[in-house]
Hints:
By secondary structure, the chain is of the alpha/beta class. The protein contains 15 helices and 14 strands. Helix 3 (117-126) links the parallel strand 5 (105-109) and strand 6.
Amino acid sequence: MKILYLHQHFSTPLGSTGTRSYEFSKALIKAGHEVTMICGSYWIADSGLKGSYHNGVRKGLVDGINVIQLQLSYSNSDNYLSRTASFLKYSFQGVRYALSLEYDLIFATSTPLTAGIPGIFAKLIRNKKFIFEVRDLWPELPKAMGVIKNPVILKLMDLLETLTYLYSDKCVALAPGIAEGIKNKFPSKEVTIIPNGSDDYCLKTVKTIVSGKLVAAFTGAHGMANGLNSLLDVAQELLAMEESGIEIQFIGDGKLKQGLIARVERDSLTNCRFLDPMPKTELFDYLNKTVHVGLMVLDNIPAFYNGTSPNKFFDYLSLGLPVINNYPGWLAELIRDSKCGLVVNPGDAKQFAKALVSLKENPSLCAELGSNAMSLSQSKFKRSSLAYKFVQYMIAS
């Protein structure tokens, strides 16, 4: 089967972002299928292509994937209009490929929601099988965050979401709340849940705390959704407790990073450290050697509770890092049930600080939670197992 795969933010492990589409594409190829990937130029991604662009496009074979990369720069630091323009340009060029290339099935993954537009055209004009993967519920999430307030834009986004679900043959959801959101609009729509997963190649050994020093790290985008000021509140609480043996690290980049750094300097939060984004394999090596606890932090928005499937959470599991989570929902329940970390209340910096101290002062508990995390990654979220499920879902009639 020939599959046209659309992911604007596609990346290989050479980049500093999620590699779900890369891993799933390789699984499709291993199963005997052909994959053509249409992607853009994401700020922390690496498509694997190194040649020059010709007329705004460069092409090549990357680990068996036929990659077509569009010269469309995108960064989380861009303003709203620039980001919207990038999304629309990608979808319009995607339509051109959807109507001209030879393939049997078109698969589009959000975000952005506009990634589904080529699939709609492929379905309506060429009657191609169209599968849509939903990573976030739009416009529900941006509306809940207050990022988009214009009622006309929200109505148009809701219409696009409805049309994308309507014309897709079936959907893939990354979290239970996402599947529920799709079903609320189209109860008869076939939907399967395939969350993000733990990469087999990053499986390491559980570390122990040495010399009473504990390093806790947050990895990923420093944006509005992440609510990282809450971690600076935690750092402030630790200093007030005269706890000097815990360091909080922020690994990544984003629109709010400079503001966070400014607050750290202003408030003399000497227990915080900021690092630049790292290629995925380099990041795993760094976490394995240096970090004891993974921090799963989001802003306290109910739409996040069951509607997200963060890459970082599954990376922490695969590395045997106990996870401290600060918002309710399916991940919090999973952490409690699997005893692979600690759950604290949203906005409770004191409770969060005490959770970090408890792990530092009880290395055996930290190691036990980390071991449970690694076991969970292999029993329920092994990337190769999820990729197999994905392949079977894709090719099923």
